[in-house]
Amino acid sequence: MKILISADMEGATGVTWPADVLPGTPQWERCRSLFTSDVNAAVQGFFDGGADEVLINEAHWTMRNLLLEQLDDRAEMLTGRHKALSMVEGVQHGDVDGIAFIGYHAGAGMEGVLAHTYLANSITGVWVNDVRASEGLLNAHVVAEYGVPVVLVTGDDVACEDALGYAPEALKVAVKDHVSRYAAVCRTPGRTAADIRAAAKEAAALAVRREPADGGPFTVAVEFDAEHLAMAATVVPGVTRTGERKVAYTSGTMYDGIRTFKAVTTIASAAVEEQYG
Ligand SMILES: [Zn+2]
Asked: Averaged in consecutive runs of 10 residues, what is the pLDDT profile of the chain (277 residues)?
């Protein structure tokens, strides 16, 4: 049994503040250890539950956050950016039986600690076929096309609630309770590691590959916080303006859908000015 872990940082134990997840800050240096503890607990739990292989795919920012030297020796880690499937890279080779979303968070425009979808501020909402989408929902559609079930989700309580929508059967572990975008009641890493390890052990039983899903077509709508970003995003082929601050496109598969989304976010973020946005 092979498990893939997609590891994002905003939903990690103790993380509530931009500097906590911003590479290069002293606070990020401290939070890397908390983040690594969550991921390592999942690794250990999956091995407890019978996994033969666990691959961790870094999914936050520059995708260079986890401390390799603190991980269980049985795990392997894919670190660094520019990957065909971004946050769920590694799922496409036909050998993954289940995926865990560790450190996930609520989507843009939603309530939740550090809630966003890809871009921290510029995107205020994403919808897939009219359903409000988080990164978890987008990635769940991608992995379903490879027949890989989401078996475990960790993050704040809102991220866990969000996961009920896209992975109802997955185990969920809330490592903190949302108070505001930048505040949460946090549990200690000792406690959250024990909770995550126990949940991962149980979740291993859900890691059974299925028939690849054929859920398309997917119409993805993206709303920005400024009009010029919507205009800029229309340079991506197939992306059309649907409102003052909104664009949309339709993809036959979520493989194409997520790659177009990546192009849209890259173009939009390049159009943001330091002043005025
Ligand atoms: Zn994220």
From this structure: 98 98 97 98 98 98 96 98 95 98 97 97 97 98 98 98 98 98 98 98 98 96 98 98 98 97 97 92
CA of 134 from ligand 1 middle (Å) equals 9
- Encode pLDDT of 200-255 as tens digits: 999 999 999 999 999 999 999 999 999 999 999 999 999 999 999 999 999 999 99
Closest CA to 112 of 19, 20, 176: 176
Report how far ligand 1's centroid is from the alpha carbon of 99 (Å): 16
Q: What is the pLDDT of residue 170?
A: 98
Cα-to-centroid distance, 77 and ligand 1 (Å): 18
Percent helix, percent strand, percent coil in the chain, to nearest 5 = 35, 25, 40
184, 187, 188, 189: CA torsion to nearest 10: -90
Domains and CATH numbers, the chain: 2-111+147-206 (3.40.50.10780), 218-270 (3.30.1360.130)
The pTM of this model reads 0.97
Distance (Å) from CA 117 to ligand 1 centroid: 6
Helix (H, G, I), strand (E, B) or coil at 171: strand
Residue recorded with tokens 């049994």? 1
From ligand 1's centre to the CA of 93, what distance in Å? Answer: 23
